[in-house]
Amino acid sequence: MKRATIDSRTRSAVEDSTVSGGPDGVSQRVGPLVVLMRVATALGLLTTLVLATVAGMFTTGDIGMLRLHGTLSIVLAAAVLVQLVLTILIWRRNRALWWAPVAGLLVVIMTVLQIGMGETRTLTVHMPLGMAICAAEALLMYWAYGLRGAWRAPTATRDRTAKAGRTGDGARTAGEGA
Fold it and tell me: Residue 96 carries which DSSP code?
């Protein structure tokens, strides 16, 4: 059996983090992009939940919570921008995940609209949009925690390149002549 060569764009399994207990009972490896995406989506979801709590406290009369609500919106904006960058990087490693940057961009757009609606006090749009962002963050986090090996090409692509005697980046596999 031939082993593929490893270049600078492909990390060896030794360098990657290991998560045990995949659906088939075998250890599943995840790369650093996936770990960062998990952290970013967890931060985004936690921020939306805290934002909703602070908004509830503000609407019941605690005026001081409005400043905290505005500060947390900036934290959420930063988190969704990081998520967008990470979804693009993950998509570049696996083109089958084309929808991930699209979803990330939609969440960024919703967050920018949300901040604008909050600044103009358009609460009829601001509150439902906040719930939609919270749901989107929950879905992105669910997706991120389901990712395994997203930096690799889809199975069909790997099979085709293996049959051609090449690695995913076009280099010859070990043992092949140049």
Answer: G
**What is the pairing mode between strands 28-30 and 17-19?**
antiparallel
User: What CA–CA distance (Å, rounded) separates 24 from 127?
Assistant: 41
> What pTM was estimated for this model as a whole?
0.67
Question: Angle, to 10 degrees, between the axis of helix 32-59 and the axis of helix 123-146?
Answer: 150
- The encoded tokens of residue 132 equal 């939609």
Burial class (CB in 10 A: 0-12, 13-18, 19+), 30: buried
Give the number of other CB atoms < 10 A from CB of residue 169.
Answer: 14
Task: Identify each DSSP E strand in the chain by its residue range.
Answer: 17-19, 28-30
CA dist list (Å): 60 to 63, 74, 148: 9, 23, 43
pLDDT (tens digit, 9 = 90+) per residue, 47-101? Answer: 999 999 999 898 888 888 989 999 999 999 999 999 999 999 988 988 888 899 9
Alpha-carbon Rg for the chain, nearest whole angstrom, is 21
